[in-house]
Every structure is written in structure tokens, then in C-alpha cells.
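hey so i finaly got around to running the thing on VWFA domain-containing protein from Flavobacterium hercynium. pasting the sequence first so u can double check i didnt mess up the copy paste, my clipboard has been acting weird all day
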Amino acid sequence: MKKTIKILVLTLLAISVFSCGKTDKPENKPKATSFKGDNYNISILIDLSDRISLEKNPNPTMAFYQRDLGYIKSVSEAFTDHLKSKKLKQINDKMQIFFNPEPQDRQIDSISKNLRIAVDKNNASKELLNSISANYAAQTQKIYESAIKDNNFIGSDIWNFFDTKVKDNCIENDSRNILIILTDGYVFYEGTAIKEGKRSTYITSKLIRENGLNTGDWQKKMKDNDFGFIKPDVDLSKLEVLVLGINPDHNNPYEEKVIKAYWTKWLTEMNVQHFEIKNADLPSNMHKIIEDFIAKN
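ok and heres what it spat out for the C-alpha cells, dont ask me to read them lol
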């Protein structure tokens, strides 16, 4: 009897040890997930419409173009921090600025080309990394000052940018593609102002009123009538979008919600997996939001 019990105990002990050993093997543990693209490809699309006009849209706290400059500074700092966190041989990152339509001012076009930065192991010097943020701040300030001085605001064709340019200019394989849009949320350009049924390539305060989206039942009307932007034939599943600077007409208490609903519906239909839409605010309040969005993996 004692011999039988001893054999049984030894058998159970062997099974226990075998099981523990099998569980602890690395191949049986769940693999940790990681973000595929450690290289950043950051694009900034600037709306140079009359939203930045000091005459049409004055702001006693801080001019809207100055807020944009603060947001761009935060973006360039986050980009630089990312570069400094990588080993030299791993660096292969880009940051660039776009406008649509492109400004007629040759100076702005020249500056924007200089702000298309590609950093890799061959040019990633300490001096370059330390100069990116200051260079972006100085050069983008020249862009805004030139546009304001010119005082010829022809509109913002953000819809066309998504339709014809974003896939080619802002998306690269094996990179984390981030598009940051500086806009008040309104989209209008006369050259591509199209309506198809209840959909359009633009959104203005006038359109919101015409669609009856200035009352408490705006959400039901929007759903029942399928109001929204015309969906471009693009798949943007490899793009992340951060929209900054939403500044609705306060004469309509529902305007902000309608603008954000238009953008949300549009980005979702284009299969953008990660996006945020934020109101205009002081750069100091937006810094962490921008930093967190860019740093998120």
C-alpha cells in the first residue's frame, strides 16, 4: 500500500513539473504587440483662408495665426523628441508642410519647400536635430505674415487635398503617417464647390443654415437626410489625422457639433482609424494634446 502511494505521489509530482516547464517556455507566452512603423511621416496642412485675417477674425487674447504657430512649434518639438529617442541607424523620418490651394506668393512656396525635412542616418547630426524646432518656428511665421500682408484669401480646398493629394503626398509604407490640419473647420473653395444630393465638398455657416442644422434636432436631420461631405474614393486606413483650431460661428449654438459631425463622418468613411478634432485654444493648452497624439503608438 505504501509503495502504491509513493508511486502515485511521484507521478503527480512529475506531471506538475512537466506542466510548469511547458507553461514557462517563451514560445507558449503571448507575443507582445508593437507599432509597425517606428518612422514618422508627419504632414501639416495649413488653411490660409480668411480665418487668419486680423481684420475679419480679430481675437483679443491671441490671434489665430499665432495659435497656429504655437501648434506647429509643439509638432516640431514632438518630432524632434522622437528623433532623439532613436538610435542613429534607425532614423528615417520626415516632416513637411502643405497648402491647398498653393499660395501665389513665390516666397511662401519657397519657404514651404525648405520646410520639407527628411532625416536619416546620413544627415542626423546633433546640430540638425537641435535646429528643427527653431527653424520651423521662424519660417512658418514668415509664411503667415506674408499671407496676412498679401490679404488675398482665396479659400481652403481641404476636400480636394484629400481627394487628389493626401494619398500620394502624406502616406508612405512602413511609416507612421500623421496629418495635422490647422483649420477653423469650415471648408470652401469656389473652384471645387460641388453638391451631390445632400452631400457637398464644402461646409459653411450658410450651408448649415440652409440644411436646417441650426436647431436642436440637427442630429436627426443630418442622419435622415445623409448630410455630409462627398466621400473621395480613397482608403486612408494608413493615415492618422489631428484637426486643430475648430472655431464655429457662435450665433448658432449647434454649429460646433455640426462641424465636428461632418468631419467625423468624413474621416470615418475614408477609413481613418485614429483621429481627433479639437477646438481653437491657446498653444499652452494644446501642447499636451499634440504631444500625446504624436507620441501614441
